[in-house]
Design goal:
The complex is a heterodimer of chains A (about 600) and B (about 200). With about 600 residues, chain A is an alpha+beta fold. Among the domains of chain A are: about 70 residues, SH3 type barrels; about 35 residues, no CATH class. In chain A, about 30% of the residues lie in helices and about 5% in strands. Chain A is built from 20 helices and 6 strands. Chain A has a 5-stranded antiparallel beta sheet with strand order 5-4-3-2-6. Chain B has about 200 residues and is α+β, with helices and mostly antiparallel strands. Chain B has 2 domains: about 70 residues, Roll (SH3 type barrels); about 70 residues, no CATH class. In chain B, about 30% of the residues lie in helices and about 30% in strands. Chain B has a 5-stranded antiparallel beta sheet with strand order 4-3-2-1-5. A 4-stranded antiparallel beta sheet of chain B has the order 7-8-9-10, with helices on one face. In chain B, a hairpin with a 4-residue loop joins strand 2 and strand 3. The radius of gyration of chain B is 26 Å and the shape is elongated. Classes of the chains: A alpha+beta (about 600), B alpha+beta (about 200). Chains A and B meet through strand 1, helix 3, strand 3, strand 6 and helix 5 of A and strand 2, strand 3, strand 4, strand 6 and helix 2 of B. Strand 1 of chain A pairs antiparallel with strand 6 of chain B, so a sheet runs across the interface.
């Protein structure tokens, strides 16, 4: 080493120079001077060198040696594989080369990957060894192989994110340095020792995973899970009627999913082609705020369009689907299936979108409860007459047909009360409830299926009353909002044309809401609206009232999330209230349910 | 064996076989006669195709800034045979080749650090089976080597031969857990490759 140390300022700290490696081979002692020597060589050998602060440029007319040196320098810090004469391959980090002489190579953190010597003609891993610094003399050297070397120099060497610094890759560095690299993509295959990853794919034929995470965790670590599914969803009652209920449910589901819809999102989900108008680019399709309805404008209560959203029916729906009659089910929704929620959807199976004006009023009229009967009738008929034109009538036949089987299901005696009342909030929700269906629907066989009939005798009654209440309530405002209803030409009725006629069951128990009922939406300050005071006791989790703002509307189905809460499977939120009224021995005022801002319900009611 | 020197011009794309049985194809970056070292960079596939099609395309094969290639520095005397595929331009741009020493050293530092971390994970003088157990444990637990013992979470110690019985130390819960994991891992290792390890 001929005084090479003097140029150290250009080079990394002196410590670097000392390859105090373990003298594996003879040349090791020279290691310390190696890269200094290399740099110096570069600097001194060609006169045309310009020295920038940090770098060394190769001048024009570079000698081949300079090029070699340049490349080798670029290799410093890279992982390389060095092939040696006896066939072994040593892998490590390229540290230095002896450019003075014949370019022996020094590797740090090196290991013999493949041992070509006589001793081991296989991978040398009898015993795992720690990596060390190795020196490979030039005469042994066959090849140095390095991957992913940037021969042209790295971009923006002074940039904040040298991509050389693998441990501190930041996004900008990652994205910046990529210059059009198309890689051949290989399918991932697990490493040798990783076959356990396949556990993730253990599915049995049905697609259910055969791996239970909770069991595994308990077995492995003794961790007990306290997960109880029923806290988060409605308890399924697995009883003798389970299959029927399931069938009902699937039918409803199919119906809902098969519905026509104008909503582009739903249409897409269902595979319906809506027609590509309006340059529906991705933004409009997927991210823009929907503006096709005028929900944003404030509409006075009576002018509000009774959207089908008011799914009182949905309220009635429970996970335990009762083979109720289609009442609930049939009313369809404008575009959404939401209205379909009705449990008793059997009939609704046949119901198509663009549903029909639900003859809620029918029900109401048909099954007046106690005193209100007459009153309702009158109202309903009035309403129905008015709204004739707006309703698209549904093939009632279907409904009827559908309804029949229900009826046969053996509930009788009990007024179908449970069904009918799609507690339409007057105008809202029941858009067309009051409508013309009345005319048509009068003939509808009232679906008398006792709602829960066999399963929950008590509850059905109550639900019945709830429903009735709801419905009556619904009908009441019909008068005033009828105009608004009339204005709804495109709204679809949520009434269930197939619903059976209500027959009052004098034996029906009156409904008494449990204390937990949530009070109805307080916005109804309108004089014509009446909310029974005693309804203030809220039933947590049960959104009360129909046609409530979407927040409620979005969960029209009320789940009985409390184990001990109301016995009924489905609660007609409006029902109880009305029920209260009923008990009060008939008021002169109809109960109006009104959702201040009935927006078109666009979601699904689950 | 002395390969023909004239053919080793810069920019030429050659296809070669070495005496060790390797085959490759790449473009010559540099050739140093005195040391007989040939520097080749392996072109990315797309460019290689281009090379064949249009030989004299400007910039083909040139290593742009930041572009990464695989590089071989090969002693020419180990080339058994080779053939010229095409001729291209100088892959290096002499006027813009800069060596940023700081960056280079920084890179080396980082690589060394990384390698050290990985080296920590490897036990010295331990059997491959032990190493696999260690690796398996390290997937979910912090583990270190202490000579030939595996130390988990700095508390629980597992000695050779790394059976659940050899687990000691730590809190009861931690101990139990390590035992279970070891048990599980062993079963899995054995079931997967019966007899692979001694």
């Amino acid at each position: 080493m001929m005084g090479m140390m003097s140029h150290q300022q250009q080079i990394a700290p002196p410590s670097r120079g000392s390859v105090n490696g373990f003298p594996h081979r003879k040349l090791d002692r020279e290691g310390s001077g190696r890269h200094e020597s290399k740099i110096n060589l570069v600097r001194s050998s060609s006169g045309g060198f310009t020295n920038s602060e940090n770098g060394i440029k190769l001048g024009h007319g570079s000698h081949s040696r300079d090029r070699l040196i340049y490349v080798l320098t670029q290799l410093i810090g890279h992982h390389v594989d060095v092939h040696v004469k006896n066939g072994s391959i040593i892998s490590g980090i390229f540290h230095a080369t002896n450019s003075d002489k014949d370019f022996g190579v020094v590797l740090k953190m090196a290991q013999v990957i493949k041992d070509g010597s006589a001793r081991g003609q296989r991978y040398a891993d009898d015993v795992v060894k720690k990596p060390e610094t190795m020196v490979i003399p030039a005469r042994e050297l066959v090849q140095v192989f390095a991957k992913d070397v940037a021969l042209g120099g790295d971009e923006l060497p002074k940039g904040p994110g040298h991509d050389k610094r693998k441990d501190l890759l930041i996004d900008s560095a990652i994205s910046r340095s990529h210059y059009l690299e198309e890689r051949e993509l290989e399918r991932w295959a697990p490493d040798e020792g990783d076959s356990e990853c396949i556990e993730l794919e253990k599915y049995d034929r049905k697609g259910n995973r055969s791996w239970d995470q909770f069991e595994t965790n308990a077995a492995l670590f003794g961790v007990k899970s306290t997960f109880n599914e029923e806290i988060y969803t409605t308890k399924l009652e697995r009883g003798p009627h389970m299959r029927e209920l399931e069938k009902h449910a699937s039918r409803i589901a199919r119906e809902i999913e098969g519905e026509d819809t104008k909503d582009i999102h739903l249409a897409e989900e269902r595979g319906l082609f809506l027609g590509d108008d309006l340059d529906h680019d991705e933004e409009i399709k997927y991210s823009a705020v929907r503006r096709d309805t005028d929900n944003s404008k404030y509409k006075p209560p009576f002018a509000k369009i009774p959207s089908s959203t008011c799914h009182v029916d949905s309220f009635n729906r429970t996970v335990n689907i009762d083979p109720k009659d289609s009442l609930a089910s049939s009313s369809t929704m404008d575009e959404e299936s939401s209205s379909h929620i009705f449990d008793d959807t059997d009939a609704s199976a046949t119901i198509q979108t663009n549903s029909v004006s639900q003859p809620t009023s029918d029900y109401l009229s048909d099954r007046p409860l106690s005193n209100d009967e007459n009153r309702l009738d009158r109202k309903l008929s009035r309403e129905s007459n008015e709204n004739m034109d707006n309703r698209k009538l549904q093939p009632e036949n279907n409904l009827s047909d559908g309804a029949r089987p229900l009826i046969s299901e053996g509930l009788d005696g009990r007024p179908s009360s449970s069904h009918a009342y799609e507690p339409s909030s007057s105008g809202q929700g029941f858009k067309s409830r009051e409508t013309p269906d009345l005319k048509v629907s009068v003939k509808h066989p009232s679906v008398t299926e006792p709602v829960t009939s066999s399963q929950r005798p008590g509850s059905s009654t109550s639900s019945t009353s709830e429903r009735i209440a709801a419905n009556s309530a619904a009908s009441a405002p019909g008068l005033s909002p009828s105009s608004s209803i009339g204005s709804l030409t495109s709204e679809k009725s949520t009434l269930n044309p197939n619903a059976k006629e209500f027959k009052l069951n004098p034996n029906a128990k009156s409904f008494s809401p449990s204390a937990s009922l949530r009070p109805p939406h307080p916005t109804s300050s309108d004089a014509s609206y009446y909310y029974p005071n005693n309804m203030q006791a809220a039933r947590p989790g049960l959104p009360v009232g129909m046609g409530f703002p979407p927040a409620y509307g979005a969960q029209p189905v009320m789940y009985n999330t409390q184990p001990g809460a109301s016995p009924q499977g489905y609660m007609n939120p409006a029902g109880p209230q009305y029920g209260q009224q009923m008990m009060m021995g008939g008021q002169t005022r109809p109960v109006y349910y009104y959702a201040p801002e009935m927006q078109q319900y666009r979601g699904r009611n689950f | 064996m002395e390969a023909g020197g004239e053919e080793f011009a810069i920019g030429v794309v050659i296809s070669a076989k070495t005496t060790l049985g390797e085959e490759f194809e790449g473009q010559i970056v540099a050739f140093d006669r005195p040391s007989n070292l040939l520097v080749i960079h392996i072109l990315p596939k797309s460019l290689m195709l281009l090379n064949r099609i249009s030989i004299s395309q400007e910039g083909v094969g040139r290593a742009e800034r930041g572009e990464r290639r695989n590089v071989r520095v090969l002693k020419a005397n180990y080339i058994r045979e080779f053939s010229v595929v095409s001729k291209g331009d100088d892959p290096l741009d002499p006027s813009s080749c800069m060596l940023d020493l700081n960056a280079i050293y920084a890179r080396e530092d980082a690589a060394l650090r990384q390698a050290e971390i990985e080296a920590e994970r490897i036990g010295v003088g331990v059997t491959p089976e032990a190493q696999s157990i260690f690796d398996a444990l390290s997937k979910t637990l912090p583990v270190q080597w202490d000579k030939t013992d595996i130390v988990v979470m700095k508390e629980v110690r597992v000695r050779s031969p790394y059976l659940p019985e050899n687990v000691s130390g730590g809190t009861a819960a931690a101990n139990e857990r390590v035992k279970k994991v070891i048990d599980f891992e062993r079963k899995r290792l054995h079931s997967r490759v019966p007899g692979q390890f001694s």
